[in-house]
Amino acid sequence: MDAISLGVLRHRMEAIAEEMGVALQRSSSAPNIKERRDYSCAVFDADGRLAAQGAHMPVHLGSMYASVAAIMARFRLEPGDVAAVNDPFQGGTHLPDITLVAGVYHDGGRCIGYVATRAHHVDVGGMSPGSMPLATEIYQEGQIIPPMLLVRGGVWEEGPIVLLAANVRAPSIFLGDLRAQAASLEIGRRRLLALEAEQSSPGLADAMDELMAYSERATRDAIRRVADGVYAAADELDDMLPGGEPVHIAVRITVRGDEVTADFTGSAPQQPGPLNAVLPVTRSAVYYCIRCLLADPVPVNDGCFRPVKVLAPAGSVVNAVPPAAVSGGNVETSQRITDVVLRALSQALPDRIPAAGQGTMNNVTFGGWDSAHQRPFVWYETLGGGMGAGPNADGLTGVHVHMSNTRNTPIESIETELPVRIVRYAIRRGTGGNGRTTGGDGLERVYEFLQPAEGTVISERRTRRPWGLAGGDDGASGENQIERADGRVETYGSKAAFSLLPGDRLVVRTPGGGGWGKPGAEPS
Predict the structure, then answer these.
(1) Is 200 exposed, middle or buried (0-12, 13-18, 19+ CB in 10 A)?
(2) In this structure, what is the dihedral angle of CA atoms 10, 13, 18, 20, given to the nearest 10 degrees?
(3) Mean pLDDT of all residues belonging to the chain
(4) pTM passes above 0.90
């Protein structure tokens, strides 16, 4: 296939995933999907290899292959079937992320590929609203969905749907989002069939192979530009549970020729808390970091992953085994894995790697009963913060960084959906680290509750600040507080569970990014 045809194929494939995402976003129920866009869509070949993805969530996309593999191992999907999985130990990441997969079949019954979509559902049950509790085992975090059929031959399976809906706090929202995911798969199926019909020479399967081979060559070429060597770094999570000890994460990056190995031996064992990460999450973070080294716009697919090897001891915080709690591993530990990998690579590429970003997704969940409207309410969102400064540019302010690629929820959406008033939403000026270039600033969001609620915050970088690089200053740490209606102020650490009464205010202040280079220094 010539270069022009390959480029056209690449964009056609990526457009399928993007259109799937638009369909999901526009037809979903929860603001977490339709406003924050906490979802990802991708296309896989008939062997379950990633062929194309949308510009969605890195933590989803680098790990979705495991969901497709788990479903392929359990079923032979027939035309019209849709399978689901969220089990972190069978291809998932954490329980709120539900992945749906459908096979795409030519008229003759030949499978030409798979389409998949993953979305973070606002609640999947468990011990606290939003399904991001301060759990000590996975059974407390929500419903576990092993690979199972939700749609058989185009007809929804009533039993599984009734069971799933009976175990969540907002069943109408849950079912609406699940059906929106299935609808996005149908869009992907139609578009992939149309593309296949146009690929006469070579066929679509061969064209996908060529596209993956191109990405592999480009990735290997980028790795060759990094000096051979072993580059080590370490960092810590603030804690696993309130009042706990720091959790150590270490990596040794070995670059040899056109291959990279990331070895996490020496990281802490898995903990009795929610920040354990399963292996696909760890791989996803490493893949993302290597992808950032590619100077040219290389299509992201299975070829990008082939030169990258990840070693992580089973039973560690970066390769947890059952029955570990993992809800925060996907959102928080993935960020710290990214930090340590980039910090290690900064030794080899000092003029390319940025300082640490906020290093957290600032997960806020709460829920209760809205007596004014006689209905339950439940909420999940993450908040942006400071991006780390780079060698040639300041960090952005109030954005999601690295493993997250979502938006901040608009105030209007929160106040429309919930018995909550946002009394302050502002940039935390001066929280980015100083340097030759300056880290981005964090945010402040203050929620005032109009009805009683139970809430949880899972965050990071409250005691350990985002680090600067090349002499740049660290970014400011974040803060979590509750301002009670009676005037008392309660300050929490990185993780907290609490009860809220009308008039109480939850205050979340997110970290700034680290600075890069000594202030006043001239570029080298």
Answers:
(1) exposed
(2) -170
(3) 95
(4) yes
